[in-house]
Design goal:
The complex is a heterodimer of chains A (about 300) and B (about 260). Helix content of chain A is about 75%, strand content about 0%. Chain A has about 300 residues and is mainly alpha-helical. The N and C termini of chain A lie far apart (about 60 Å). The N and C termini of chain B lie far apart (about 35 Å). The structure holds adenosine-5'-triphosphate and magnesium ion. Magnesium ion binds near residues 49, 50 and 178 of chain B.
């Protein structure tokens, strides 16, 4: 008894400890947030500054950059800076892969939540996790070894093509779309299903006319997130798309995207050169477009009903 | 006399037993329900009222591990036999839930949902159905200017009446209501009670309620359930003035439950 300090002191002391822990925790958390924000801002500033240099310092025409189909930066004395084929290529593989992956992913989500909630999920969930875990280089490698020869022999062209790129990408973004779509469907309140069944609707009518429309904003978010992923993917696409700077005229033509041109050329150009600066401009375009994706996602999320 | 009572019945439930897995939730229920009457079901929590009302449109079949035995005759056809058309049954036996559950669509589309899935395509016809259903529940004047606005923008009481209108739009014979006013304020509750008294001219209504006054105000017959058994079913006046079973009396006078 006597060895204990008076109650008042003990209280004060413990409060002091508690206060210390509290402050330290706060500082750590603030620091984490600050580092993240600072990193994002500095990347944006750096990219913006580097990305604009080609236009400001090197006098490349922004109009030419965005609208011309001719690309040949090392063509002296008349270097050509038309990035349209790559901008188009990026959008083409993104939309085409979404067209394949969206129905598959949403279909799988409906299967897991509505048709076979017990065993469907047990089988599909690990499959999806596995797909997430495979690194992009492996996707690209498989695409290169299996898909490209298959396209060449059975469909046509060189095999290196928009088609191969879009197939590889659609498999890569499938888990993103499926996972978010599954969340969207399973977060719908059961009262919607009950209400529909009680009116005599069949399961399929309930899914098509009540559940999918109710989940639509989140389903669209899933698709846009998948597209954002496809848009930014470089490695796997680069291995199967052919990387030519010509504007593709069919999905069997080889092509290139902003990301693949950057990864292919960044090693061959010197920092500060005009050839290097236009690559930064492409990086800046990627950044601007991913901001656009984020804005779309925010808009869609604000329209979520459940 | 006896032929008259037979034809006057919409539902005739005979020796109904129900199990959730091993749990015997309904025990030997015999329950005739007359046309164009309001039948109220009362009883303490967990006695099986919701379970019973869900057997009448077989919504109970959406719950796994439910076992049923006995007969539920709807218009003299046993709906527990194999060859029952669930779509047709639920079209004829509408249901309203404890909480209004409008679809996140327009007011119009909510009410047109039932008729549409049952094959009505004609726009004029759908409009007619929607207007009439809204008038039946006394919601027309409140929403006529925003039929294409979102149903989730309505108040709780309005949402519940919308759900009743949605159920009426399939032109059912019977309307099942499981505690339709328990989530509503007194004024919305009153509106729904008035509506029930009007609807019974055209529909048979079965309503679960925890509110004795409500049962007394709106119903012709009252059924008292206790621990899965139907203790007593009689005219509401009899149940509330001199019930035959002392357990009923105990419950309505507030001695237990
Ligand atoms: N899905 C279910 N699975 C298993 N048991 C259930 C299920 N639904 C209800 N029960 C059980 O069946 C019994 C009757 O439940 P029910 O919901 O019909 O009661 P209730 O009379 O409607 O009660 P309340 O007044 O609280 O709504 C209860 O013991 C309940 O625990
Ligand atoms: Mg209940």
């Amino acid at each position: 008894m006597e060895r204990l300090a008076p109650a008042k002191d003990r209280l004060l002391k413990s409060e002091k400890n508690w206060m210390n822990g509290e402050v330290r925790g706060k500082i750590i958390v603030f620091l984490c947030a600050f580092i993240m924000i600072a990193a994002t801002i500095s990347i944006t500033i750096f990219l913006g500054q580097k990305g604009l240099q080609a236009f400001i310092k090197n006098g490349v025409s922004l109009i030419e950059f965005l609208t011309s189909k001719a690309w040949n930066p090392s063509n002296q004395p008349n270097p050509l800076f038309g990035a349209l084929p790559f901008i188009f290529g990026s959008f083409a593989v993104t939309f085409l892969s979404a067209i394949i992956a969206a129905p598959l992913g949403i279909g799988a989500a409906i299967f897991m939540t509505e048709i076979a909630p017990s065993w469907g999920r047990k089988i599909l969930q690990p499959v999806i996790e596995l797909l997430v875990g495979i690194p992009s280089v492996v996707y690209g490698f498989i695409g290169l070894t299996v898909l490209v020869p298959f396209v060449r022999n059975h469909i046509g062209g060189l095999g290196f093509s928009l088609l191969s790129g879009m197939i590889v990408l659609s498999i890569m973004i499938l888990p993103t779309i499926t996972t978010i779509a599954t969340d969207a469907m399973s977060s719908l309140p059961n009262s919607l299903r009950e209400g529909s069944y009680a009116l005599g609707a069949t399961r399929w009518q309930t899914i098509r006319k009540v559940l999918v429309p109710a989940a639509m904003p989140t389903l669209l978010t899933a698709i846009v997130l998948g597209m954002a992923r496809a848009f930014g993917e470089a490695l796997a696409v680069q291995m199967v798309i052919g990387n030519v700077s010509k504007f593709p005229h069919s999905i069997l033509d080889p092509s290139a995207t902003l990301t693949t041109i950057i990864t292919l050329n960044m090693g061959n150009t010197t920092f500060g050169s005009i050839e290097n600066n236009v690559l930064w401009s492409m990086g800046f375009i990627l950044l601007v477009i991913s901001f656009a994706f984020i804005l779309i996602i925010r808009y869609l999320s604000s329209r979520r009903k459940f | 006399m006896s032929t008259l009572t037979v034809t006057n019945q919409v539902f005739d439930v005979m020796d109904l037993n129900l199990w959730y897995g091993d749990h015997h939730a309904l025990k030997n229920i015999n329950f005739p329900i007359n046309k164009k009457e309001v039948t109220a079901m009362i009883g303490p929590s967990g006695c099986g009222k919701s379970t019973f009302i869900k057997t009448l449109n077989l919504m109970i079949k959406t719950i796994p591990n439910v076992k049923l035995a006995g007969e539920i005759n709807f218009n003299e056809k046993n709906i527990l036999s194999d060859k029952i058309d669930l779509v047709e049954l639920r079209k004829n036996v509408g249901m309203v839930f404890q909480r209004g559950n409008p679809f996140p669509q327009s007011i119009f589309d909510n009410i047109a949902y039932g008729p549409r899935i049952h094959g009505t395509r004609n726009k004029k016809e759908l409009e007619g159905i929607v207007v009439k259903a809204l008038m039946d529940v006394g919601l027309w004047d409140e929403v006529k200017d925003r039929l294409h606005g979102p149903a989730l923008g309505l108040s709780g009481g309005q949402q519940q009446r919308l759900c009743i209108a949605r159920a009426l739009a399939t032109k059912p014979d019977v309307l099942l209501m499981d505690e339709p006013t328990s989530a509503l304020d007194p004024i919305s509750t009153l509106k729904i009670e008035e509506m029930i008294l009007q609807l019974k001219e055209k529909y048979t209504i079965v309503i679960v309620t925890h509110n004795m006054q409500q049962a007394a105000r709106v119903s012709d017959k009252t059924a008292f359930f206790l621990m899965g058994e139907l203790v007593e079913l009689d005219s509401t006046a009899t149940i509330f003035s001199h019930p035959a079973d002392e357990r009923t009396e105990g419950y309505i006078t507030g001695r237990f439950g």
